Amino acid sequence: MEEYRLGELRHLLTTVFLSGFSEFLVKPVMTDVTVAAVCSGLNETCSLAVYLTGVEQVTVGLGTMVMMPVIGNLSDRYGIKTLLTLPMCLSILPPAILAYRRDTNFFYAFYITKILFDMVCQGTVDCLAHAYVAKNVCGRKRISMFGVLAGVRSISGVCATFSARLLPIASIFQVAAISFFFGLVYMRVFLKERLHDDDEDDCDEDDNTSGRNHHDGGDLTMLAEPILRDAPTKIHIVLNTKYSSLKDMVSLIKNSTILVQTLVVTFFATFAQSGMQSAFLYFLKARFGFNKNDFAELILLVTIIGSISQLFILPKLVSAIGERRVLSTGLLMDSVNAACLSVSWSAWVPYATTVLVPVTMFVVLLQDKWDPVNRGRSKDAYPG
C-alpha cells in the first residue's frame, strides 16, 4: 500500500523537487550578485548589501506570518492545486529579471519584486505539499510520506547546489526560471486535486481513530489532546474553513503551556539563525574573498551532512536520550558554532565547523517535531 501511495504521489514529489531545485540554485550566487550591484563591485565590505538582506528577511517574515493562514483557508476553499499555481507562477519573475541583466537598476527591480512575491511564495509550496499528503494519505502512512517529502527537498538542495558550482552566473538564473516554469506546467498538467474520490471516506474513518471527526457542514473538529495535554480542561478546536485560523492558533496558545515554551525557544533560535544567515556569507566574502564556487561548496557540504544527520543520527539519539536533551545539546552546539564562526581566523574554519552541523540541525528538526500541528502525528517517527 505504501509503495502504491508513493507512486501516486510522484507528480507532487516532482513538483516539490523542481521548486526546491530553483530555490536552492540561486542561493550560492546571490551574495556576489548583490555586492556587485549595490556596491559597484569596488568595495566588498560594503554594508548596504547586508542591510538590504536583513530588511528583506524581516519584511518577508512579517508578510508570510500574515499570508500563511490566508493561503491555508483559500486552499481549503478552492483546492490545493489552485493555490499551488499562485506561488509557482509568481516565483518565475524574480530569477528571470536577473537572468536578463544584473546591473543596479535591474537588481533593485528584482529586490522589490522578490520581497513582494516572497510574502506569498516563501514556504508555500512546502506547506501545501504537506497539506496535499495529509489530504490524500490516511493514518500513520502520512508520517512516512512527510519523511519522503523532506528527503526529496534535501535531494533537490544537493542537486541544485552542485549545479550552481558548475554553472556560470547568468545560466544559474536562467535555469532557475526555467525550472520554476516547468514545475508550474508539470503541476497543472499531471497533479490531481485528489488521488481517488473514495479515499475521503477511508481517511475520515482513519482520522476518527486519532481524534478527528466530521460534523455538520463539513467543519473539521479536532481534539487537540497532544498539544493541550497540560491544559486544565479538554478543549475542542474547530477548524472551520469559512473563518480565519488565527482564532484557532490563539486558542491553542492560551491553553497549552508546552506550546508557549516551544514558541519561545523557536523564536530565539530562529532569531539567532536568521541573523547569522543574513550576514554570514557577506562576512566570508569580505574576510576571505569567498565567491560563488566557495559558497556552493560550503552549502553543499552542510546540506549533505545535515541530510545524513536527519536520516541516521537524530532518530538514534532521540531514542537514547530523549527529545529535551537532544534539543538542549543542539542549542548549545549552535551557540558554539556561532562563536567559532564569528572569530574565524582562516578560510578553513567555516569548513571545519560543519562537523557541528549534525547537532545544530537537531534544533530545526525538533522544533518542527514539536510544532502544534505535527506533534500529535509525529510522535511515532522517532521512538522514545
Question: How would you sum up this structure, described in words?
Answer:
It comes from Arabidopsis thaliana. One of its GO terms (molecular function) is transmembrane transporter activity. It is found in: Membrane. Residues 198-218 are annotated as: Disordered. Residues 198-208 have a biased composition (Acidic residues). The chain is mostly helical. The chain folds into two domains: 7-195, Growth Hormone, Chain: A; 256-373, no CATH class. It contains 17 helices and three strands. The protein has helices at residues 2-8, 10-38, 48-78, 80-90, 93-100, 104-121, 124-136, 141-166, 169-190, 199-208, 246-254, 257-288, 292-321, 323-342, 349-352, 357-369, 375-378, and strands at 212-214, 220-223, 236-239. It has a three-stranded antiparallel β-sheet with strand order 1-2-3. Strand 1 and strand 2 form a beta hairpin. The protein is globular, with a radius of gyration of 22 Å.
SSE topology:
Blueprint: H1 2-8, H2 10-38, H3 48-78, H4 80-90, H5 93-100, H6 104-121, H7 124-136, H8 141-166, H9 169-190, H10 199-208, E1 212-214, E2 220-223, E3 236-239, H11 246-254, H12 257-288, H13 292-321, H14 323-342, H15 349-352, H16 357-369, H17 375-378
Antiparallel strand pairs: 1-2, 2-3
Order of helices and strands: HHHHHHHHHHEEEHHHHHHH
Structural class computed from helices and strand pairing: mainly alpha
Number of strands: 3
% residues in beta strands:
under 5%
Alpha plus pi helix count: 17
Could you state the oligomeric state of the chains shown?
single chain
The largest sheet, given as strand count, sense and whether it forms a barrel, is: 3 strands, antiparallel
Gap between N and C termini: 26 Å
How helical, in percent, are the residues?
Answer: over 70%
Strand order of the largest sheet: 1-2-3
Mean pLDDT over the residues = 76
Membrane topology: Multi-pass membrane protein
GO cellular component, one term: membrane
InterPro entries: MFS, MFS_trans_sf
Region (Disordered): 198-218
